[in-house]
Design a protein that fits this description.
Layout (H helix, E strand, L loop, with lengths): L1 E9 L2 E5 L4 E6 L1 H6 L8 E7 L5 E7 L5 E3 L2 E3 L3 E7 L7 H13 L4 E7 L6 H10 L4 E4 L8 H8 L3 E5 L6 H8 L3 H4 L20 E4 L2 E4 L45 H4 L7 H15 L2
Parallel strand pairs: 3-5, 8-9, 8-11, 9-10, 11-13
Antiparallel strand pairs: 1-2, 1-4, 2-3, 4-5, 6-7, 12-13
The structure holds guanosine-5'-triphosphate (GTP), magnesium ion and zinc ion.
The site of zinc ion (ZN) has 7 residues, from helix 7.
Length: 287
């Protein structure tokens, strides 16, 4: 058996990157019958078939540490949540939703990438640096090729998914990170599309042997309906030190007297983030 990782799936065939080459694999029927669908990002064990040496069958799918639904990718190590400093303006509510989703999915590493920094006002930069100081924020410009090296360094030896609204430059940034993506992924790859994303198939683009990047089509909204309102607070990173110790043991940190967390709003906790927490909490309790 050879171990590898699914980097692309097209029409029932899976491309599995193994140490020496990429195998084109079909999946055993047992997976279909058990409802386990091989997924891009999966670690798998394959058996080579035939005599030309690059075809195989997937025999085993290793347990996943996580699974994103859109784009559908398993075993994601890092999420780059990307917005543009301008054109389009940042939708902070959507940005917070992405951060919450990354936390829910137990993605270890989260980077906020603010692209189009060539168009950024001093106000926007100051706002983001203040409100998101609990997160890793990188300012980039694909147009001026700045910040790319810093961002790339964060992604080494990880599987990273880029997410963000349409038109913020996700594909442009990935092209800048992997300028030789066509050569690196050979015939499996097609040019990453700029502008409106048309392809629905997700693909892991290889930067090096252990470093893969998945692009995604732009999001305009992100539903968090599956989340319990009382769990929401766990996904605001800067709340963590203040979740315990309120007057009421089951404090929701909304309007209770003696709320320790609220005492820190405007100090360690940015008021904007707390307000969006309350809005989202109310949304989740009304569903
Ligand atoms: N000024 C400026 N424009 C940029 C920058 N990066 C990308 N753009 C432009 O922004 C537009 C959208 O870029 P894309 O890379 O297609 O954006 P995307 O996020 O992949 O969009 P979708 O695939 O639709 O989700 C293109 O016209 C790019 O040339 C940047 O750093 N500065
Ligand atoms: Mg794109
Ligand atoms: Zn409280």
């Amino acid at each position: 058996m050879i171990k590898g990782r699914i980097i692309k799936g097209v029409g029932g065939l899976y491309y599995v990157a193994a140490p020496s080459l990429v195998y084109e694999c079909s999946a055993r029927g047992k997976f279909r019958r058990s409802g386990l669908t091989p997924t891009v990002g999966d670690y798998v064990e394959i058996l080579p078939v035939g005599d030309n040496g690059c075809k195989g069958t997937i025999e085993h799918i290793c347990e996943r540490k996580n699974l994103l639904v859109r784009p559908r990718v398993a075993n994601v190590d890092c999420a780059v949540v990307q917005f543009a400093a301008a054109q389009p303006d940042i939708n902070y509510e959507l940005l917070d939703r992405f951060l919450i989703l990354a936390s829910v999915k137990c993605i270890d590493s989260v980077v906020i990438c603010i692209n189009k920094s060539d168009l950024m006002s001093a106000d926007t930069e100051a706002y983001i640096s203040r409100v998101y100081s609990a997160y890793d924020v990188i300012f980039t410009s694909a147009a001026e090729n700045t910040g790319i090296d810093v961002l790339r360094d964060k992604l080494i030896d990880k599987v990273t998914v880029f997410a963000g609204p349409s038109g913020v430059g996700k594909s442009s940034i990935i092209n800048a990170i992997i300028p030789d993506v066509l050569r690196k992924t050979g015939e499996l790859s097609k040019k990453i599309q700029r502008g409106k994303h048309t392809t629905r198939e997700v693909e892991l683009l290889e930067y090096n042997k252990n470093t893969f990047i998945a692009d995604s089509p732009g999001f305009t909204s992100l539903s968090l309906d599956f989340l319990k309102a009382d769990e929401l607070k766990l996904h605001f990173r800067e709340f963590a030190p203040y979740l315990e110790g309120c007057f009421f043991n089951d404090c929701r940190h909304i309007a209770e007297p003696g709320c320790v967390l609220k005492e820190h709003v405007g100090k360690e906790i940015p008021p904007e983030r707390y307000e969006r927490f309350v809005d989202l909490y109310n949304e989740l309790t009304q569903k």
